[in-house]
Amino acid sequence: MKKHHSALALLAVAVTLVVSGCTAHSSTSMQSAAQPVTQAQFITLQLRESTSDFAVYLRQQAEQLDGGTAEFAAAYQSGDTALAQALNAPTRMFYNRMLVARSEFSDLAARIDGPDPALGSLNTSATAGTALSGWQAIESDLYPVAGQSPLTVEQRTALATALTTDTHSLSEAVYGLSLTTDEQTAGAAALIATLGNEAASGRKDSLSKSGVSDLQGYVDGARIVFDGIRAVLVTQDAALATRLDHQFAAVQDALNSYRDGVTFMTYDKLSESQASSLRSDVADLAASLARVEPTMGL
């Protein structure tokens, strides 16, 4: 009996030693496998994730734009002006967020929201005397100037059909679209420098006076890009990253103060002081965003 207990004790000791040896070996293997990530690897991983996340964001906005545009177009086509006006700015916001990537769908964009001289360098097809199309043409009918004749039912139907068709084509076009990080940063900087400044000055969509709402969409799109590359920018220029944090916050705080639920004040309701402050904040943001691409050396 004693021999039996001694054998069991020896077996228990042996098992303990074997398990301990395996554990020690596993810990050593895990430690050797868990090598620290180099800065170059970190940057590569972050930029890859940014590209993937922005592609998903584009698809999400395109899907919501597609559905929202169908509802807006139906209201406009039926002659329900009040409903169409109410849906105008909120629906366009989905589109405005996508304009960081406008260079990838410029032909469709020219039909969906142009020509409009306020687009500046983002729309080289905007020329004087060119017929309006898409949102611009419909806005002109929804917010007519004095003495302007309303469009006929046939004309409204044609515009509504073209807008929904082109918007659906856009939603299909962005699937599979993947912008590099340098394309994102360049697009965000150009968007705020052109349309962002136009909206902050009240010159974008001046008939509907929806510049404040437009600006929110542009800022949303640019902010998504910045959030995606911020961790990398910090390694290159932490001061610039911090400055952009504050500048995005300043513009967003101003926009929040002009918001009422999902809608925004029309630009003409801003005081001169408010408008001046908004222009200054957006100009500062545009200047800093222009520094991102060369700073990161993408």
Topology:
Elements: H1 2-33, H2 39-78, H3 81-98, H4 106-112, H5 134-142, H6 153-173, H7 181-200, H8 211-236, H9 238-257, E1 259-260, E2 263-264, H10 272-296
Antiparallel strand pairs: 1-2
Helix pairs in contact: 2-3, 2-6, 2-8, 3-8, 4-6, 5-6, 7-8, 7-10, 8-9, 9-10
What does this structure look like?
This protein has a single domain, classed as Up-down Bundle (A middle domain of Talin 1). 73% of the residues lie in helices and 1% in strands. The chain has helices spanning 2-33, 39-78, 81-98, 106-112, 134-142, 153-173, 181-200, 211-236, 238-257, 272-296, and strands spanning 259-260, 263-264. The protein has a two-stranded antiparallel sheet with strand order 1-2. The protein is globular. Residues 1-32 and 116-129 have low confidence and may be disordered.
Q: State the major sheet.
A: 2 strands, antiparallel
> What's the oligomerization state?
single chain
Topology-level CATH name: A middle domain of Talin 1
CATH architecture field: Up-down Bundle
Please report the distance between the alpha carbons of the first and last residues: 77 Å
* Total count of helical runs of at least 4 residues: 10
- Report strand %: under 5%
- Our Rg estimate from Cα atoms comes to 28 Å
Protein name: Iron uptake system component EfeO
Family: Belongs to the EfeM/EfeO family.
Subcellular location: Cell envelope
Keywords: Signal
